[in-house]
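Forwarding the complex inputs:
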Amino acid sequence: MNDIYVNSAGAGALSEKLAALLSRRLALYFSGSTSVRREAAESVFYSICLCLGLPDSAGVLSGISLPELEAHLDSGIRRFEEKARMAGTLAEYAACHMPPVQNASMSSTVKSLKDFPHRYNPRLAAVDIPCSIDYQLAVPVPEALSGADYVISYLKRLCIENSFLSTYPAGDVDALLSLHIPGYPGLVVNLFEPVFANAAVSALLKGPGASIALSVRDAAVLWSRFGKKPADYAARALRAAAEGLPAVFPGCREYYSICAGNLAKRICAVRPAGLTGIITAFQSRSAL
Amino acid sequence: MKELLPASFLNSAAMALDLDRCAAEAEKYGLTITPHASERINRTRTDALKANGRVEFAPGVPEKLISAFCPSPYINQAELEDTLCSLCELFYYFKNECPGITDDELIHGMCLIFDGPANGSAEYLAGISPEALRRVCISESAGGLLPDADISGDACNE
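Prediction (whole assembly, two chains):
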């Protein structure tokens, strides 16, 4: 959020209406009291702003009356309640489509997010995320998002990652992750990124549908092809290769494209021996 | 992001004191609240709100305190201003420490103790534990159905 609707001289009227709206809502939510803790007032205020779509909607809202502003707020609250229900549906979907390998932080995160619709209160704390999100995504949710918007974006990205992991045999994924991140089931690590890296490089070097197992020789070939070259060059090649990777969940292609670009930067920035931290090279194919 | 909060809330005491109403309330009990006293009570309220990290969104607390405590047999003209200021400070302190208790319940609970074991001493009231005050407030709001809260000795234990 920015402070345009407080600092701009033209938005002074809106600021006054927001103050009046905040007073009315605090009186409603904290019936019987004439004061609240400052943190509570701030939380309700930020909830009002989020539900009204501020600051983007400041221009539209500055010209309407207080009753109309209140109606807009109620409409916004209903919209965020619907978003919370959507988040709950996504969490249920994620819980039913977990990857073929176990990870404690992912399991606990999904379990916590299933409770989100019951814990989320768009009236009092619309910007909050009353859940425990331990599992980190390969491409984090933008920090500009908050509340239900954040959770929905997180779950969509998680579903993309897990649907990708689910297209490969459990044994292959487990072998790769065990080599790349020993003890991964109990660690707070992202499972998608190392598997995607191998899959994208494998598709690049050997064509679509190739195994995610890469050899030391494959790593050397990768380095000879992209080492010390501009990241853009590698990114174009990896993005093209990623186009052939299995895509199940909506939004996969865009996600793969971002991950391919990030992978390219890392490949081009390291020395040959450093590739072992980016792709997982098996000493022999019998490792899978 | 705190600067986004409306300026009136940043000041933590947006509500104007109804001086006339305060004076009228006190006059019912033969007491006088001068404009100077009203201003001091108002400043105390502002400072207490800030000290306790609270913001006010509706008026009425000083007026309610005056209505509730002026009938007390322990209130006299000489100490009226000091007592009301002390009660104002205590109100916002206990408001933080007793979440879920309404303004009216809290003021009534404070009155029961002030007129009871405190014998009109605001200092005694200040020594009451929030838990004990909460029990008094809840039992009163339950219409006396629960056993009276035992608050004796709480002040000594604080």
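Residues 23 and 33 of chain B are 5 Å apart (CA to CA).
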